[in-house]
């Protein structure tokens, strides 16, 4: 799996985005509502809901909060959240993708315009940036007792597309549609999965001078703080 630094970029940014517990809860609740609206109340037949419920469990979202929002999501008058992907150009030609769960697209776009006005960059046309990224399922595994060869074999048998050893543990890449199926097979083998997400992975990374890198980071951090924003991806090299 070429381009190890892109994983470091994404993980670093996710950690920054997840810094506030309140935002984690809010995001997961919106994911649950969206999953129920799209696929129904039964987690057995709704893989999207299964994944959202697992996220809630991993983040220690109170059970009563989860149950209340699952019930609310089935109500016809419950606010519906749409998944929207926004594409931006940062400084130095860097591509930035913004995933949002929003019930008001006009508000979200307005917030992004304010971000680019304050921190630079421009909102791009649909498709102008996204073609440089691949949508993939990502499973992060902490270091454990199994050898790399054992994990590689298990991941391959479960249907993984790629596998990489990192400083923190291992990364398994899947087709987005197969993410939960692969995770379930690993769970059955008692393999600990620290995180299961669908992410946008850059095909190529851009090296930036320190000043450009810092300008882009300031833009990304502003965007990450927006209430509607779920995740931010970019194609800068972490090495700058």
From TrEMBL:
Residues 5-74 form the TACO1/YebC-like N-terminal domain. One of its GO terms (molecular function) is DNA binding. Residues 81-236 form the TACO1/YebC-like second and third domain. It is found in: Cytoplasm. Keywords: Cytoplasm, DNA-binding, Transcription, Transcription regulation. Pfam families: TACO1_YebC_N, Transcrip_reg. InterPro entries: Integrase-like_N (IPR017856), TACO1_YebC-like_2nd/3rd_dom (IPR048300), TACO1_YebC_N (IPR049083), Transcrip_reg_TACO1-like (IPR002876), Transcrip_reg_TACO1-like_dom3 (IPR026564), YebC-like (IPR029072). The keyword Transcription regulation applies. The keyword Metal-binding does not apply. It comes from the Bacteria. Belongs to the TACO1 family. HAMAP family: Transcrip_reg_TACO1. This is Probable transcriptional regulatory protein JYU14_01460.
């Amino acid at each position: 799996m070429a381009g190890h630094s892109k994983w470091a970029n994404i993980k670093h940014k996710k950690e920054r985005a997840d810094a506030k517990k309140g935002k984690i809860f809010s995001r997961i609740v919106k994911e649950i509502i969206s999953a129920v609206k799209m696929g129904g109340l039964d987690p057995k037949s709704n893989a999207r809901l299964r994944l959202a419920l697992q996220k809630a469990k991993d983040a220690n979202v109170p059970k009563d909060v989860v149950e209340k929002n699952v019930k609310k999501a089935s109500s016809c008058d419950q606010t519906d959240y749409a998944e929207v992907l926004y594409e931006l150009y940062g400084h130095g030609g860097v591509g930035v993708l913004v995933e949002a769960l929003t019930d008001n697209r006009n508000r979200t776009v307005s917030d992004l315009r304010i971000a680019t006005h304050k921190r630079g960059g421009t909102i791009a046309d649909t498709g102008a940036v996204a073609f440089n990224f691949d949508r993939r399922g990502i499973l992060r595994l902490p270091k454990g007792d199994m050898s790399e060869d054992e994990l590689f074999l298990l991941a391959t048998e479960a249907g993984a597309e790629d596998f990489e050893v990192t400083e923190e543990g291992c990364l398994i890449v899947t087709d987005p549609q197969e993410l939960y199926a692969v995770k379930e097979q690993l769970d059955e083998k008692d393999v600990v999965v620290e995180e299961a997400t669908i992410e946008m992975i850059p095909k190529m990374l851009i090296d930036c001078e320190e000043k450009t890198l810092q300008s882009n980071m300031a833009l990304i951090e502003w965007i990450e703080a927006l209430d509607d924003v779920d995740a931010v991806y970019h194609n800068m090299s972490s090495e700058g």
